[in-house]
């Protein structure tokens, strides 16, 4: 007799021979493996904002006698359990903000959502130390969480909402400090420099660093930015009920603390930007109008370049601005202006390869609109004068020759503005296009004793034939700072003076720590001064200048 045995649940039937007859046999079904999401930390540069946050967290833990274990979030739970997500991603009231991050966000310690013995560290954009606020935690990381600001229930003394000029402030990621008096903004930036040296130059800090000076203000606190880059994102396939995508700058979370315009897409829809110069805003209006008209022609997103261009009006009243942003009547938008009694016309260039001009301390600079050039024209005479003054080598009499090396020279801004009284300048720059412009700018300004070479900064040491004790070196690297190869060679060359300019004070502090403590001649130098320059009012950014002198 044969019998067919029904397979138990979760089995499949497979025929096996039984008593000479094929009969189905029970076999366990393989359960599909439950997919478990794992937290994969991304590698971060320690001197980038998320890297600096790790130092800020350590500082907070030390101040509250806590360990990392006391603030840890269970990422396995958060990533895999929707109930846990609801517990973590919650509204929290009565949050007292205790400090400001280097990125301009408030930081607070709040109760842990799962374990009452623990705490959580939370970032609160648009929050200030002294605020009491309600927040919505929306993202969790192992050692901190991110939140949106919902309501300010008690205002920090530094907060003054009457100062806000922009209707998008509190949503747009561009500015963080519009509701803070300018003097306080400058002090925040000074503190960023103090903290950067505390975190990244601990050896040097041990009595070896001067007090960080007062941050140099910008002559204009609004309408100063000579370059803006609004963007938009268009989907590949355009649906029938397609709504025009926003044109502007990134949205900073989903804050609710103030009523703002600009829609709810990931890009805030903006018509103008109060930190941009007048002509850049005319370009903004033109290019936005063009985009609104033509957006259906685009297949994907793009960034629009808006770069101020300052052209001299010739004695016959003629001037050539090249291609520039035009209005609805196809007329080039222009603004007439005067610098030191000379007439100029300002236009807004959108073509990255087009040559544009700027005037700094009566020197004219030309460069490609899409290449690097400093963005706050009015602070440049102050900065370049400060750098020039600090390049002076002690004891140099009128007959003693001085030399200048400009590492990371771009299109020659510091080489040219700091050259008077110097016998020779040699600049190095990795971008061949910028070097072409550095040479052109030297010629344009009647300078004959400048030489520029294309290459990595360390290439300069093969080309230097000037005596080190009569040579001053300017460093102005990109955000990531200098590498050890360059710093070791700089120390071996041993110039009389070094002026290090940086848009990332954290990498500057790290480099100075290495230079002073790890290079052959570094210990012979003293940091003479540290000072911030406010190239970007209303934002958290600060430019830092460090002066090093050979003892
Ligand atoms: C912050 S910008 C400064 C430019 C110039 N000093 C100015 O103020 O206009 C940094 C410059 O360093 C250049 N650069 C980047 N890496 C470099 C390297 N390894 N060696 C030389 N130049 C480099 C970039 O092309 C850029 O022009």
From TrEMBL:
Its EC number is 2.1.1.35. InterPro entries: MeTrfase_TrmA_AS, MeTrfase_TrmA_CS, NA-bd_OB-fold, SAM-dependent_MTases_sf, TRAM_dom, tRNA_(uracil-5-)_MeTrfase, U5_MeTrfase_fam. It comes from the Eukaryota. The active site is at 503, 503 (nucleophile). S-adenosyl-L-methionine binds at residues 374, 408, 429, 476. The keyword Nuclease does not apply. One of its GO terms (molecular function) is tRNA (uracil(54)-C5)-methyltransferase activity, S-adenosyl methionine-dependent. It is an enzyme of class 2 (transferase). GO terms for biological process: methylation; RNA modification; tRNA processing. Residues 1-32 are annotated as: Disordered. Belongs to the class I-like SAM-binding methyltransferase superfamily. RNA M5U methyltransferase family. This is tRNA (uracil(54)-C(5))-methyltransferase. The lineage of its organism: Eukaryota, Fungi, Dikarya, Ascomycota, Saccharomycotina.
């Amino acid at each position: 007799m044969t019998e067919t045995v029904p397979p138990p649940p979760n089995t499949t039937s497979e025929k096996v021979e039984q008593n000479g007859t094929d009969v189905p046999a029970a076999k366990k079904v393989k359960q599909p493996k439950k997919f478990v999401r794992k937290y994969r930390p991304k590698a971060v540069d320690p001197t980038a904002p998320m890297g600096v946050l790790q130092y800020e967290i350590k500082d907070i833990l030390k101040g509250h006698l806590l360990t990392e274990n006391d603030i840890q979030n269970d990422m396995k739970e958060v990533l895999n359990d929707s109930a846990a997500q609801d517990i973590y991603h919650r509204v929290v009231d009565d949050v007292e903000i205790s400090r400001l991050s280097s990125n301009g966000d408030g930081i607070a310690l709040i109760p842990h959502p799962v374990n009452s013995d623990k705490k959580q560290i939370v970032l609160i954009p648009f929050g200030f130390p002294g605020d009491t606020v309600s927040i919505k935690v929306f993202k969790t990381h192992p050692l901190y969480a991110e939140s949106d600001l919902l309501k300010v229930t008690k205002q920090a003394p530094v907060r003054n909402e009457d100062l806000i000029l922009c209707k998008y402030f509190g949503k747009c990621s561009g500015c963080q400090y519009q509701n803070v008096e300018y003097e306080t903004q400058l002090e925040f930036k000074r503190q960023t420099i103090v903290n950067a040296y505390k975190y990244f130059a601990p050896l040097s800090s041990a009595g070896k660093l001067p007090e960080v000076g007062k941050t140099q203000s910008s002559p204009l606190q609004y309408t100063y930015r000579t370059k803006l880059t609004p963007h938009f994102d268009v989907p590949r396939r355009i649906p029938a009920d397609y709504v025009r995508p926003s044109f502007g700058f990134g949205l900073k979370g989903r804050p609710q603390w103030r009523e703002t315009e600009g829609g709810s897409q990931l890009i805030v829809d903006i018509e103008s930007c109060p930190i941009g110069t007048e002509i850049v805003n005319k370009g903004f209006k033109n290019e936005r109008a063009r985009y609104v008209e033509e957006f259906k022609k685009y297949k994907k997103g793009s960034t629009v370049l808006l770069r101020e261009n300052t052209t001299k009006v010739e004695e016959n009243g003629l001037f050539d601005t090249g291609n520039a942003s035009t209005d609805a009547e196809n007329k080039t938008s222009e603004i007439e202006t005067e610098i030191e009694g000379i007439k100029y016309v300002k236009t807004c260039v959108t073509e990255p390869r087009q040559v544009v001009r700027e005037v700094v301390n009566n020197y004219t600079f030309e460069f490609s609109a899409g290449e690097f050039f400093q963005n706050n024209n009015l602070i440049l005479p102050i900065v370049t004068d400060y750098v020039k003054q600090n390049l002076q080598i002690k004891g140099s009499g009128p007959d003693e020759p001085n030399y200048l090396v400009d590492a990371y020279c771009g299109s020659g801004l510091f080489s040219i503005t700091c050259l008077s009284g110097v016998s020779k300048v040699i600049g190095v720059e990795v971008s061949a296009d910028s070097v072409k412009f550095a040479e052109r700018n030297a010629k344009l300004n009647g300078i004959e004793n400048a030489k520029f070479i294309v290459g990595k900064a360390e290439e300069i040491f093969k080309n230097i034939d000037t005596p080190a004790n009569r040579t001053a070196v300017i460093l102005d690297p990109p955000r990531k700072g200098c590498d050890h190869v360059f710093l070791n060679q700089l120390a071996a060359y041993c110039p009389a003076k070094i002026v290090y300019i940086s848009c990332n004070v954290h990498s500057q502090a790290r480099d100075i720590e290495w230079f002073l403590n790890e290079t052959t001649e570094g210990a012979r130098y003293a940091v003479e001064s540290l000072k911030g320059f406010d190239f970007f009012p209303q934002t958290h950014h600060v430019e830092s200048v460090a002066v090093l002198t050979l003892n």
